[in-house]
Amino acid sequence: MANIQLIDVEKYFGASYIIRKLNLEVRHREFMVLLGPSGCGKTTTLRAIAGLETIDRGEILIDGQAVQGLQPAARDIAFVFQLFALYPHLSAFENIAFPLKAAAENDAVIRERVQHVAKVLRIEHLLGMRPSALSGGDMQRIAIGRALVRRPKAMLMDEPIGALDAKLREEMRAELKHIHLQNEATTVYVTHDQVEAMSMADRIAIMNDGVLQQCGSPAEVYQQPANLFVAQFIGSPIMNVLPAIVQSSHDKTDLLMGGEGERMTYSTVLARQLASKNAGNEITMGIRPEGVLVSLKEAPGYVPVDAHIIEPLGPYDIVDIKFGGQMVRARTPSGYVGKAGERVWAKFDERQTHFFDSRSGESLQIRL
What we know:
This protein is an alpha+beta fold. 26% of the residues lie in helices and 35% in strands.
């Protein structure tokens, strides 16, 4: 187990500012995922924790001890790379045992630890085989076994299943979480795939352009995004975002949306909360596809719209509708809307509507 802290960490590559005043704590036994687009600094952060990159400012603490001056071998951390990096001339057993042999462990200890790790990873039947005879998923298990066999304080993983096909990735997501729960090691996992992050993480640290945008549980970052970047990075399809003008009266709050001025009515509570935030009359609203309610017939509060594109995705459909001059994506039951061009009625569920400052993009923290 290990507690990892990054305090005001900064990293430059020449004139490029890669990590910007990063403050983050990874708790004992936690599965923390660093999530963000390519080039956001997440892999550099992982390599800095491991000691593979130096930092320009700040501190990295492992169990309260500053380690930025220590060599990687002195940090008691295991690193799993995206590419398997196995020795092709060695068997799976020998690949897993390599760190122990390098540390001059005796043969009995090596055999016991390798067999234990192989049992956890369910690869006992592969120990006599060489990498050329193994599948991608099996090779990744061997690479993970080589990291686990040392019983490190923490496991660092840099997109370890990114090179696998979709079916194997799905299997390995469940496998990695299972290994984490059994091994109880602190794990920091880097990915740009939000499905991986949501399905595996205890907490997700979302980065963009070297800046930590939000850190929280999968439910928190999905349901309470801190800003527009997080709101649109988490979730598939992404959150619908529309500019809106607030028009309030004594008994309701109207939001005038898009270039064609489609109007959606909310309770007076919204206007009061917007006023308390000094948000002004122009805001940005966000609504996830499941918050766009669609009816096949006219109903109170619903406005008429036309279905444009229907994407059948098995248990549900994603239906594109034109709302206020902008395309909005709605999630409906499979086959609910018959065909493109059909007239339907839609409204936004106010309990699932998010409100953001139009200038900064920060959430106004208003939920109805």
